[in-house]
From TrEMBL:
Native source species: Mycolicibacterium confluentis
Top-level taxon of the source organism: Bacteria
Annotated Pfam families: TetR_C_24, TetR_N
Protein name according to UniProt: Transcriptional regulator
PANTHER family referenced in this protein's UniProt entry, alphabetically: HTH-TYPE TRANSCRIPTIONAL REGULATOR RUTR, HTH-TYPE TRANSCRIPTIONAL REPRESSOR KSTR2
GO molecular function annotations of the record: DNA-binding transcription factor activity; transcription cis-regulatory region binding
InterPro entries, A to Z: Homeodomain-like_sf, HTH-type_TetR-like_transc_reg, HTH_TetR, KstR2_TetR_C, Tet_transcr_reg_TetR-rel_C_sf
């Protein structure tokens, strides 16, 4: 009999495990705990996930896919507009599933213990794609003269860390919306990068940023 919440049994197990991992940590959660919350015996849980590490890897894959979904660049956008739009999408993704983001970063130092070398490589590849996108946007702005020259590698890493770190406190119905926070983050970065004083003061996020957000 399918769950009453409309999720498939596998999706329900994943959702429960994500909440438990976020609250207790991966190491502090047993398969018995997941089975108890869902109301299944452990053997049934193992039917859907052969090991606890496979649940964690599924969480990682989905979190990475959501982050990559934020990577979208319209060729008509300036570098500053593209960077802002990326930030909006990323924070929206985090707000939609803060537990998944929490698990991703809480367990990040230990994934070589939980995952196979191939799984770790898959995780690193997706992280590299996100870094290359942000790094590329900053380099594009420098090359076009839109941005001041800077160490785009360091800036990209710092900006990614700042935005992704929002999982610790970002909530769907918090004091500020995801779009408002994205505007704050992006404005703080871009006002240090934009060469044109008028643009820097008046439209650091782009002419159509409000309409497109």
């Amino acid at each position: 009999m399918p769950p009453e919440n409309g999720l498939s049994r596998r999706e329900e197990l994943l959702a429960v495990a994500t909440k438990l991992f976020a609250a207790r940590g991966y190491h502090g959660t047993r398969m018995d705990d997941v089975a108890d919350v869902v109301g299944l015996n452990k053997a049934t849980v193992y039917h859907y996930y052969a090991s606890k590490s496979l649940i964690l890897f599924d969480i990682y894959q989905r979190a990475a896919e959501r982050t990559l979904a934020a990577v979208h660049d319209d060729p008509t956008w300036s570098a500053r507009e593209a960077l802002y739009q990326y930030t909006v999408r990323l924070l929206e993704q985090i707000a939609e599933n803060p537990e998944g983001a929490a698990v991703y970063f809480q367990e990040q130092p230990y994934i070589t213990e939980w995952f196979t070398e191939e799984q770790v490589a898959m995780v690193r590849e997706k992280e590299t794609q996100v870094y290359e996108h942000v790094h590329g946007l900053i380099d594009r702005g420098i090359a076009s003269g839109e941005f001041y020259p800077c160490d785009s590698h360091v800036l990209a890493l710092g900006y990614i860390g700042m935005t992704l770190g929002a999982y610790r406190w970002l909530r769907p119905h918090g004091r500020r919306s995801e779009k408002e926070i994205a505007a704050e983050f992006s404005t703080a970065l871009l006002r240090g990068l934009i060469r044109d004083e008028k643009v820097r003061v008046e439209t650091p996020l782009g002419e159509g940023s409000v309409a497109r957000a």
